[in-house]
Specification:
Layout lengths: L1 H8 L9 H18 L3 H8 L4 H11 L9 H12 L4 H6 L3 E4 L6 E6 L22 E6 L3 E10 L7 H24 L26 H14 L7 E5 L1 H10 L8 E3 L7 E6 L3 E14 L3 E3 L17 E3 H4 L1 E14 L5 E5 L3
Parallel strand pairs: 1-8, 5-6
Antiparallel strand pairs: 2-3, 4-11, 5-7, 7-12, 8-11, 9-10
Helix pairs in contact: 2-3, 2-4, 2-5, 2-7, 3-4
């Protein structure tokens, strides 16, 4: 009953174009409220009185156990997109199948395994064709924990609330976009820690002699696997993305997402309708003023007497605030062959 009452009194925010600024305000408010010994929600109400989304998200992100369940699909996905608006992965996921993992361990999504056409015209008195639909299950989930962290010096306390939001937002945006793109578009299998990369098990196509031939190859291979040509999204390294946008025909209307997380010459084609993604729970934003962190962006170690983790820094000693954002996500390809990749020559 308590959860239902909260759900009615705290409707999920309707994210707008300012959602990136809203998420930055949430993170900044948690940071500055901690520093000033104030409730994050009261800080938002005082400094951003016209941003109802920021107030709702701050309340949800700082008191997740008292927030109604069943909101992950409508809150976490927009939150992640707002946190990393330039990420190729989050832009792709906005076009994909959305799953809500609240109370669900994993999904088995049935897909039709055949792309062959069936006859639809029959002669008089002839039997009509009946398709023996062979369905296969694509597994999506369970969700895996994403932790994003940063240390910000106490001098930020003297900045205005809006300036602090812009600074903290830019830090987390860059970190999140590069990190999530790296995992989504790599070729590693799923394990106990992370979902599998979308390129796992994908054999690269042989590069053609021109941009047009490479694009045609990708589209043909996706169509042959039963994918939709109309739903194709191209993801490319920085140079390939810019080249494709500059040199393609004005009639080329497929989305092109560039990312620095993949090699410059790589071109990926994805049937966005054959991708599923989902989230569990509400994003949580936490801060600490007396914690100790091991500063390593690729292989952090636990800090204890038996491990030499270096360099470590104390928030209290350095007059800084440690900020952490946590959420749970999953993604998967639903149909083999609907993701193709080429190492281009152009």
């Amino acid at each position: 009953m308590q959860r239902e009452a909260l759900k009615r009194s705290l409707p999920a925010p309707a994210f707008t174009r300012s959602s990136t600024r809203t998420v930055a305000r949430v993170c900044a408010s948690v940071f500055l409220a901690n520093k000033q010994g104030e409730s994050p929600v009261k800080f938002v109400q005082r400094n951003f009185p016209d941003d109802a989304d920021a107030e709702w998200l701050t309340r949800a992100a700082t008191t997740p156990t008292s927030t109604a369940t069943g909101l992950a699909a409508t809150v976490t996905a927009p939150f992640l997109r707002a946190l990393a608006p330039v990420s190729a992965a989050t832009r792709l996921f906005s076009r994909a199948m959305q799953l809500d993992f609240d109370g669900v361990y994993q999904y088995l999504v049935p897909t039709y395994s055949s792309a062959a056409p069936i006859p639809i015209f029959v002669g008089e008195g002839a039997p009509f064709p009946v398709v023996d639909a062979m369905l296969t299950n694509a597994t999506v989930g369970p969700t895996k924990k994403i932790l994003l962290g940063s240390a910000v010096t106490g001098e930020l306390e003297s900045a205005s609330a809006e300036s602090a939001a812009a600074i903290i937002g830019s830090i987390l945006t860059y970190q999140t976009a590069r990190a999530i793109d790296h995992y989504v578009f790599d070729d590693q299998p799923a394990d106990d820690i992370r979902p599998g990369g979308l390129l796992y098990g994908v054999t690269p196509l042989t590069a053609g002699t021109s941009m047009a031939k490479d694009i045609s190859q990708i589209a043909s291979a996706i169509a042959a696997a039963g994918g939709s040509v109309e739903n194709i999204v191209f993801v490319a390294g920085p140079a390939a993305a810019v080249t494709l946008k500059l040199m393609s025909s004005p009639n080329f209307d497929y989305p092109v997402f560039g990312t620095g997380a993949i090699p410059d010459g790589m071109l990926i084609g994805v049937d966005s309708g054959a991708i599923a993604t989902g989230y569990a729970g509400i994003p949580e934003v936490e801060t600490a003023k007396s914690s100790v962190l091991h500063f390593s962006d690729d292989a952090p170690l636990p800090i204890n007497d038996g491990v030499m983790a270096a360099p470590t820094r104390s928030a209290f000693q350095m007059d800084s605030i440690h900020l952490r954002c946590r959420l749970n996500a999953a993604w998967a390809s639903l149909r083999p062959g609907t993701i193709q990749v080429i190492e281009t020559n152009w």
